[in-house]
Structures are given as structure tokens and as C-alpha cells.
Amino acid sequence: MTIETIDQKDTQGLLDRIAALEARVAALEAHPSQGIEDRLAIVVFSGDLDKAIAAFIIATGAASMGLEVSMFFTFWGLSAVKKQKVFSGKGLLEQGFTAMLPGKLGEMGLSQMNFFGAGAQIIRSLMRKHEVSSPEELFSLARELGVRMVVCDMSRELLGIKDEELVDGLETGGVATFLGDAARAKVTLFI
């Protein structure tokens, strides 16, 4: 084997390795994770006050930092975006859900140590004492900051929640709406 032949083999090997690397870079650039944006997607599933507070604090904090934030309210989490209870025009089971679930953010209890509502009042008192925005103020701030709030259509139908029970101006959508936001988000949370 001559020196020239070795150099040609090395050159060809190097070119092959460069081509393989270029193919890998192209594959990585085409990967869906490259479409990730400065977004936060939150599923608000819980109907507990403490969890709703956490969701709104995270949402407003992220929006303040410049992230696009979407909150998807589903099942018991719908209580965080209700403004009242409506019983008329509902079936027996739907009226039962209406009676048992909180009618608005202000009626939500704590997940632990609620003690028939006393725990929620203590938390609200502590928030005032420490000058932390109330859940209602956090909700309003989230809207001011442009947080996208989507009400789950399916959950709303299952629980018999009418339009007039929800805070005005919210979007409605299904799982595809949430997945569209989550697929482009850097962070997705389930609260």
C-alpha cells in the first residue's frame, strides 16, 4: 500500500463521516422538539383552592417573564373559572354536580386541612397578611397578562356547566386545543 492510497482512504473516510454527521444534524433539525417555543401549558384539573392558587401564581410568573402561557381547565378545575351556580334547565345528575361543586373560585376549599371551609379562610387571611394577591386578583392578573384560558368542552358537557356559569370571555376547546399548546411548550404542568 502506498502513501497516496492511505491518504485517499483517509480522505474518503473523513468525507463519509462528514456526510453522516450532516445527515444527523438534518434529522435533529427536522425533529418536532425544534418547534418548541417560549411557552408554558398548564392543565388545571384540581378543584382545590391551594392548587388553583399555585396554577395562577405559576401562570402569572411565567407570563411576566415573557412566556406565552395557556391554561386548560378541565373536570374539577372548572370551578376556578366559574362565577355562579345555575340549576335551571339541568337534569338530576347535572343538578347534583352543580350542588356539590364550588360555584366559583371564592367557594373552593383546600386539598388538605380544609375543615369545612375554615382552612380556605385561614389561607386567604394569611395571603392578605403577607400581601400576596388573592386568588381572584391572580386570576385577573393572568387575564391582563394575556394568559390563554381554555375551558374543556367535554368536561363542561359532562358536568352540565352552562355558559352563564362561566366567567365571560373564556375560550372553549377540546384536547386537541391543549395538545396544540403543549406540543410547542417548553414546560407542561398538570395541576
Helix content: 40-55%
Query: Which regions are unreliable across 5 or more consecutive residues at pLDDT < 50?
Result: none
Ends distance: 68 Å
Beta-strand segment tally: 5
Q: Which secondary-structure class do the elements indicate?
A: alpha/beta
Q: Which sequence of SSEs, written as H and E, runs from N to C?
A: HEHEHHHEHEHE
Main sheet attributes: strand count, strand direction, barrel closure = 5 strands, parallel
**What radius of gyration results from the CA coordinates?**
25 Å
Helical run tally: 7
What is the averaged pLDDT score? Answer: 91
- Approximately what portion of the residues adopt beta-strand conformation? 5-15%
The general outline is elongated
Strand order of the biggest β-sheet: 4-3-2-1-5
SSE layout and pairing:
Layout: H1 3-30, E1 37-44, H2 49-64, E2 68-73, H3 92-100, H4 118-129, H5 135-144, E3 148-152, H6 153-159, E4 171-173, H7 175-183, E5 185-190
Parallel strand pairs: 1-2, 1-5, 2-3, 3-4
Helix pairs in contact: 2-5
